[in-house]
Amino acid sequence: MMCNPTAPPASQRPTPIGPRSCERSFPGRLDQVREARAFMTRMLGGCPAADDAVLLVSELATNACTYTASGAPGGTFTVRIERFRGLVRAEVEDQGSTWDGDLSSAQPPHGLYLLQALSASCGIYPGARGWVAWFTLGTPAPSSSPPPPSLVLP
Question: Could you give all domains of the chain from N- to C-terminal order, each with its CATH number?
Answer without folding.
Answer: 2-138 (3.30.565.10)
